[in-house]
């Protein structure tokens, strides 16, 4: 019964270490992927802007909200909206700097870490592969973690911390797995020894079993020391590096969302002006340039919708994975080590802090904001489709016009040749008779009458298509303005409201951060 309970405990320990590794891997992935998320098309010009405006943005923030300029055309409104999109994108620079350090420094630190981890793992592999033949009676296992930490002292970043924790977790899993395998083998040998002693014979086999047990006990000490050393390194990084970095990251995200909320509120004020726009210009047909601009707008808003969803998802996945990892680090890796060695006041407060952070993100009403952006994507797509219909009618009218011109030119060429033949034989031209009866009689036999009828029918088609095109132009322009007047304000109202909700949620979480520091 005791052996069964011990085996269950060993399996639970290995399972928890495996879960810890998985959570840290998930926490590391969103933090690195979020930095590579593509920007919507209107925001890709942010690098072209001067950085001189950043220092004065805070000072002029309140003034910007009070002084929303009245824009008279849709083009002016769009230009103003794009300007604040760029500013909103720049609000995330601080978070990007926290998540991504100098790539060269991070890679150098990680190479050193992998070198250390691979060396220790190869040592464990060589030990475990020989424990049933000639395991060492005494093995001194030493892992110099201080050298690695000194290497990473300069330019520490949240990204490099996660890289190192992930490598440590992979190493810890292998060490605990090796230790528990040795323990299982040790228990089997003990059972064999008890059986041999009970029977009281085969002293040679009894001595070999005792020697094997002694060697396995030595190996248990080695693997336990390895796991304890790695676990201590993880606890040290968790409490001394990760904890303050998470607090700093939370405040940076609060600052980012507060700035974004400010700029989205200004955009919301600006787009309300589209409701008062009136299309006073003459009906202008849709050109290829118009359709290209509409297609680019649809692609840009669609990219914004995708990136918005990814941003919220990455934040949730990241905090959820970190919280799951933090909870598991509070459990003992070695039952011989007291629980206090794994838990501290900082670790408990940090776990509670991340739990509140996770719950705050889970409660965010991002679905409504995402749906508002998606609805505007559909609005732009409807405009694009309507423009396509208009251009199709225009193309059909142009085709009929070319056909009419071709038939007219052909008729003129035939008439010219036909009239010349009449002139050569001294006959009068058709329609030049002395009375209407003679003229009508001649026209009834006119070989060109059929072609003239075709031209008349073609001319009516051209006129009908031109009328349809003019109507389509009017409908397209009216529908475009109406759809923008109804869709654009609703989208920015939803985004401004959502960003304000995020600010309120993160503000509450950041107030809890004082106990972690």
Provide structural commentary.
- The protein has 517 residues and is mostly helical.
- The protein is 78% helix and 0% strand.
- It has 14 helices and no strands.
- Helix 6 packs parallel to helix 8.
- The protein is elongated.
- About 18% of the residues have low confidence.
| Helix/sheet category | mainly alpha
Distance between the termini: 46 Å
Succession of helices and strands: HHHHHHHHHHHHHH
Task: Count the beta strands.
Answer: 0
- CA-based gyration radius: 39 Å
- Give the helix proportion (percent range): over 70%
Number of domains: 1
Shape: elongated
In this structure, how is the largest beta sheet organized?
Answer: none
Number of helices: 14
Mean pLDDT: 76
Q: Which spans have pLDDT < 50 for at least 5 consecutive residues?
A: 33-60, 101-106, 116-145, 147-154, 424-444
Report the sheet-strand fraction.
Answer: under 5%
């Amino acid at each position: 019964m005791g052996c069964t309970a011990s085996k269950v405990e060993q399996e639970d320990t290995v399972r928890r270490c495996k879960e810890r590794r998985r959570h840290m891997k998930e926490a590391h992935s969103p933090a690195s992927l979020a930095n590579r998320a593509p920007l919507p098309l209107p925001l890709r010009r942010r690098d072209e802007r001067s950085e001189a405006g950043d220092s004065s943005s805070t000072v002029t923030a309140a003034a910007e909200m009070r002084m929303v300029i009245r824009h008279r055309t849709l083009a002016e409104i769009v230009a103003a909206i794009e300007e604040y999109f760029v500013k909103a994108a720049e609000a995330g620079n601080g978070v990007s700097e926290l998540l991504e350090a100098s790539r060269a420094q991070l890679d150098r630190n990680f190479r050193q870490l992998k070198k250390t981890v691979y060396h220790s793992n190869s040592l464990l592999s060589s030990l475990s592969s020989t424990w049933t033949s000639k395991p060492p009676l005494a093995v001194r296992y030493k892992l110099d973690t201080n050298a690695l930490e000194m290497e990473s002292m300069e330019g520490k970043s949240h990204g490099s911390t996660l890289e190192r924790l992930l490598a440590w977790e992979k190493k810890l899993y292998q060490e605990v797995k090796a230790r528990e395998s040795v323990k299982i083998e040790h228990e089997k040998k003990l059972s064999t020894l008890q059986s041999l002693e009970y029977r009281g014979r085969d002293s040679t086999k009894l001595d070999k079993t005792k020697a094997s047990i002694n060697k396995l006990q030595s190996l248990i000490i080695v693997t336990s020391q390895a796991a304890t050393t790695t676990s201590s390194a993880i606890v040290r990084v968790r409490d001394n590096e990760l904890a303050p970095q998470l607090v700093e990251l939370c405040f940076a995200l609060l600052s980012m969302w507060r700035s974004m909320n400010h700029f989205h509120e200004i955009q919301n004020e600006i787009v309300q002006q589209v409701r008062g726009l009136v299309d006073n210009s003459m009906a202008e047909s849709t050109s290829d340039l118009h359709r290209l601009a509409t297609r680019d707008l649809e692609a840009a808003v669609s990219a914004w919708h995708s990136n918005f969803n990814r941003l919220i998802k990455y934040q949730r996945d990241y905090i959820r994975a970190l919280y799951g990892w933090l909870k598991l680090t509070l459990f003992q890796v070695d039952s011989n080590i007291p629980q206090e060695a794994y838990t501290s006041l900082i670790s408990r407060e940090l776990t509670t802090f991340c739990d509140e952070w996770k719950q705050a993100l889970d409660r965010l009403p991002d679905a409504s904001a995402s749906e508002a952006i998606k609805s505007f994507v559909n609005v732009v797509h409807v405009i694009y489709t309507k423009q396509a219909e208009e251009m199709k009618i225009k193309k059909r009218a142009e085709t009929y016009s070319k056909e009419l011109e071709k038939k007219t030119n052909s008729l003129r060429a035939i008439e010219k040749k036909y009239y010349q033949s009449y002139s050569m034989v001294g006959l009068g031209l058709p329609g030049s008779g002395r009375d209407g009866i003679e003229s009508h009689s001649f026209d009834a036999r006119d070989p060109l009458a059929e072609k003239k009828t075709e031209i008349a029918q073609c001319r009516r088609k051209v006129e009908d298509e031109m009328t349809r095109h003019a109507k389509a132009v009017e409908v397209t322009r009216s529908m475009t303005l109406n759809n923008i007047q109804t869709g654009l304000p609703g989208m920015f109202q939803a985004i401004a409201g959502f960003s304000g909700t995020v600010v309120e949620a993160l503000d509450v979480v950041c107030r809890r951060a004082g106990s972690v520091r």
